[in-house]
Each structure stands twice: as structure tokens, then as C-alpha cells.
Amino acid sequence: QVQLVESGGGLVQAGGSLKLSCVAPGRTISSHGMGWFRQAPGKVREFVAVISWNSDIIDYADFAKGRFTVSRDNAKNTIYLQMNSLKPEDTAVYYCAAYANGGYSDTTAYSDWGQGTQVTVYS
Length: 123
Known about the structure:
The protein is mainly β. The chain has strands at about 5, 10-15, 20-25, 35-40, 45-50, 60, 70-75, 80-85, 90-100, 110-115, 115-120.
């Protein structure tokens, strides 16, 4: 089991940017594919982005393409999600998760989750 801790969320005006981080205190995630998901109030948790252990495979949900960038620094045991051109509809709790197996856009493919960080975008 991998404990994950997200940070970097906050309140931002539409058009602004935020950079989220996800760390695994005391454990290495360098061998794990990692995903970012989000969940808005009253909605199901949805896939945002995924990055393989060596950054060889990266993919995004359609709404994230061209605005969000996922990256990782295995030396720092950290995953990032740079979010630009934020919109009010991006408001959600953002979660990172460690990939286990299965379709990487499915929540069931991930074995460990962080507690999430709130992102609120106002117009």
C-alpha cells in the first residue's frame, strides 16, 4: 500500500494556473504508473491524466488536453499536474492514485489514493 498526499490546490480566477503535487511519504512511487482524477460535487470521479513510471506513456482526458500537463520527478518521489487556462468547470477535488492494472482511465485500475486537494475556479 502506498500513502499519497496531494497539495497545491486553492482558489484561482478563471484563466489562471495551479500546479498540483503528489508525494508518497516514506515510500517510492518510481516504479508505479500514476494517475490524476477529479471529482466535482454531485458527480462521479473522473480521469484527468496518467503517466507511466518512466514518463514513456502520458495521456489526458479530452478536457485536459492542451491545458494540463502531467509530469514526474522520480528522484523527488513526486508527481505533478500543471493546470493552465483554468475554467469554473474545473472546480473539483483532485486526487492522485497509484496504478495497479486495468484500463488507466478507470478508477478501479488504481490501488491507492490520496485524500485529494480542492481546486476552486471562479469567474
